[in-house]
Amino acid sequence: EEADLKKKLAGEKAVEYIKDGMTLGLGSGSTVYWTLKKLGELVKKGLDIKGVPSSLRTEGWAQSFGVPLTDFQKVRQLDLAIDGADEVDPHFNLIKGGGGSLVREKIVNAASNKVIIVVDESKIVTRLGKFALPIEVVPFGWEVTASYISELGCKPILRKRENQVFVSNNGNYILDCLFDKIEIASELHLRIKEVVGVVETGLFIGMTDMVIVGMSSGVQTINK
Ligand code: DER
User: Fold this and answer.
1) 120 is in an annotated binding site
2) 28, 30, 166: residue to mutate for ligand 1 pocket, most atoms within 8 A of CB
């Protein structure tokens, strides 16, 4: 379907920036799915890379596509991370976490020399915040954490999947928080991080070097 084609275009384009011998950060989500699939084909043709997966779902996809995996016991620094996003603003600041992998994604991206974000054009926004901001919190006392976060101007909703509370790969909960208006994303991120019980926010500030956008007319690569 249309959106999938745009994701496929963007996801596959990112592979062009992967060089032999690289250690990669493997992002999460249905756009990165296409990166992983394409990458598996190149590995079969002899490309020598290995990747650190940013979610158990990505780990499973990588294994099924034959993408060699490594971890932070073996590598401390990654050459390139390729990841998706829920929103991208003109400063390349992101909202991520729609898939619930934001903590491991941020750890992987922070450990990478370069970060490429792959999206379909629906993710490109002029201002962050139409998409509810995912915030990972410790389950103990999450109700209190949520009330502190709400004082920052949002209504935190505990994420559920099939009527069960969603539990992240790290054993934590996710609050989806719709803010009336995100004035300065970097400030909001810091204010949220200070709240006791918060693990990480889905605001990825100043971490992105390149954005690849899949459109109906083709694919566009935007550098910072
Ligand atoms: O959860 C995440 O951060 C994912 O990267 C998500 O934001 C992008 O998912 P999609 O590529 O399936 O839209």
Assistant:
1) no
2) 28
Ligand 1 atom 7, closest CA: 85
User: Tens digits of per-residue pLDDT, 171-181?
Assistant: 999 999 999 88
Q: How far is residue 157's CA from residue 11's CA, in Å, rounded to a whole number?
A: 30
Nearest to 205 by CA among 100, 106, 78: 106
93-102, pLDDT tens digit by residue?
999 999 999 9
Q: Quick one: residue 38, left, alpha or beta (phi over 0 = left, psi -120 to 50 = alpha)?
A: alpha
> Residues 183-203: what's their mean pLDDT?
98
Whole-structure pTM value = 0.97
